[in-house]
Design brief:
CATH topology of the largest domain: Four Helix Bundle (Hemerythrin (Met), subunit A)
Strand content: under 5%
Helix content: 55-70%
Structural class: mainly alpha
Number of strands: 0
Radius of gyration: 33 Å
Number of helices: 14
CATH class of the largest domain: Mainly Alpha
Order of helices and strands: HHHHHHHHHHHHHH
Shape: elongated
Number of domains: 3
Amino acid sequence: MEHSAKRSLIRQAMRAPYLGREEEHELAVRWKEQHDQNALNRITVSHMRLVIAMASKFRNFGLSMSDLIQEGHVGLLEAAARFEPDRDVRFSTYATWWIRASMQDYILRNWSIVRGGTSSAQKALFFNLRRLRAKLAQDSAALSDSQVYREISLALGVAESDVALMDARLSGPDTSLNAPLSDDGNGMSDRMDFLISDEPLPDEVVGATIDQERQSEWLQTALRTLNARELKIIRERRLRDEGATLEALGERLGISKERVRQIESRALEKLRSALVEVNPELSSQMA
């Protein structure tokens, strides 16, 4: 959103008339029961000044005011979708929570490359740490960091270690993983090169894929050696996530469960022989 467009939006929001309680209720009912888009538009336009006022409270987090307003508008629409007009509460009171929650979620997702905690306690810590620290500094400038962390942890109900960690995150800049390790610009490695990953290497992934495809071909070739009843029993018993029981399969085929077991045993032996014939190296694995 360009700067001029943002100013135009703010002017339009400030010119929008306030809704009286009865008119607001009527529009909310029309939207909820009839999905009247005009009613929804009048509700949201008349409350955009609330979105803008809320966005101004979060402007110190370094994010664009226009983006905050857009996120707040999403929260406003969510509030309109959930609002119950028959409850004895004004829409602005109800919408405030959704607008704030939408903006806070946006800030947590975009403020830092490395996301912080998203529990309610962590959110409260993130959005109140600076304010509480400034208040404590104003009340008593002689407090040490550990004393400040203790006071804030008591006020918000979080661990002191969480307060210290969040304080470090808020006071320190993000560091790019592509930044060189050497300050002289001659370093051949960056931070990304030293991150340890538990994921398999690309050649291992390719090798596993090839092996899986080859084994699948061997199995399909071996299955063609079975007759129809043997194939059905093997598929039902061995090739499904939840294999059928001998008894259930026997009832379906009209034979005893002992006969199903015998056919399955014979089919498995035929499969072993067929697989070894395709790849003799498998004989040692099946021994």
